[in-house]
Specification:
By secondary structure, this protein is an all-alpha fold. The chain has one domain. It contains eleven helices and no strands. The longest helix has about 30 residues.
C-alpha cells in the first residue's frame, strides 16, 4: 500500500469512528436538528405573507427585499446550528481523556484534521438536508429542480469553508473550559465573508436567478476561494492548534 493510500484509509477510519460514536450516542446531530427546527418554526411566524416575493415586488427605499430576509434567516440558522455541532468535535476524546492517544496515532496531523472535518461535514449536511425542506414548506418556496440544484452547489461551496474554519477553531476551543463561548468568538469573525456570500447568492436564487447568473457573481468566486484557502490553512495550522 502506498503512503497516499494509507493516509486515505486512516482518515476514512477516523471519520467512520466518529460517525459510529455519533450513531450510538446521538449527542451532536439531534441537538443541531432540534435547534434549527425551533428557529425556523419561530421565524416562520414573523413573515406570514410571502406574496411580495412571488410577485417580484421591489422593496421600497430604505428597506431590504423579502428574499434578502429569507436567505438571511436560513443561513443564520445554518450558522448557529453548525456551531453547536462544532463545539462537540473533540468532546468524546476530552471526556474520555483520549486526546493524547488520538494525537499519538501514526497519522499526520493534517489527516486528523481532514477526518474531523469530514465527520463535521456529514453533520452539517444532515442538518441542512433536514432544515431546507422544512424552511421551504413553511415559507412557501419553490425554486424548481434547477434552482434547488444551484442552491445545493452554493451550499456545498459554503460548507467547505464553514467546516474547515469550525473544525480548526474547535480544536483551540476544546482546550479551554468555556469552549461553547470561545468557539463562536473565534469563528464568527472569520466566517463573515462566507456567510455574506452565501446569503447574497441564496437571495438571488429566491428571486429566480439561475446557475449562470449566480456563478457570474463575485460572491461565488469568494465562496470558492474561501473554501480552498481555509482547507489549506486548516490542514497546516491544525498541528499547532492541538499542541
Amino acid at each position: 500500500m502506498t503512503a497516499e493510500a494509507g493516509f486515505v484509509v486512516k482518515v476514512a477510519a477516523l471519520a467512520r469512528k466518529d460517525l459510529k460514536v455519533e450513531a450510538r450516542g446521538r449527542d451532536t446531530l439531534p441537538p443541531m436538528l432540534a435547534f434549527s427546527f425551533a428557529v425556523v418554526l419561530i421565524l416562520a411566524f414573523t413573515l406570514p405573507d410571502i406574496s411580495s416575493l412571488e410577485e417580484g415586488v421591489s422593496p421600497s427605499e430604505g428597506t431590504v427585499s423579502l428574499a434578502d430576509v429569507l436567505s438571511g434567516f436560513l443561513w443564520i440558522t445554518f450558522l448557529f446550528a453548525g456551531l453547536i455541532g462544532f463545539a462537540r468535535t473533540f468532546e468524546v476524546e476530552r471526556e474520555e481523556g483520549a486526546m493524547d492517544a488520538l494525537l499519538l496515532m501514526p497519522l499526520d496531523r493534517s489527516g486528523l484534521f481532514v477526518a474531523k472535518a469530514l465527520a463535521n461535514l456529514v453533520y452539517i449536511a444532515g442538518m441542512q438536508i433536514f432544515v431546507t425542506p422544512v424552511f421551504a414548506i413553511l415559507f412557501g418556496l419553490d425554486l424548481g429542480w434547477d434552482g434547488w440544484l444551484t442552491f445545493a452547489a452554493v451550499t456545498a461551496l459554503a460548507d467547505i469553508g464553514f467546516v474547515c474554519v469550525g473544525t480548526l477553531f474547535s480544536s483551540l476551543a476544546a482546550q479551554t473550559r468555556s469552549r461553547e463561548l470561545i468557539l463562536p468568538l473565534l469563528a464568527l469573525p472569520v466566517l463573515v465573508p462566507v456567510f455574506i456570500a452565501a446569503t447574497e447568492l441564496t437571495s438571488d436564487l429566491f428571486l429566480g436567478a439561475g446557475l449562470e447568473a449566480v456563478a457570474a457573481r463575485g460572491w461565488f468566486a469568494i465562496l470558492a476561494t474561501f473554501g480552498i484557502v481555509f482547507s489549506a490553512v486548516g490542514a497546516l495550522a491544525f498541528e499547532y492548534a492541538v499542541d
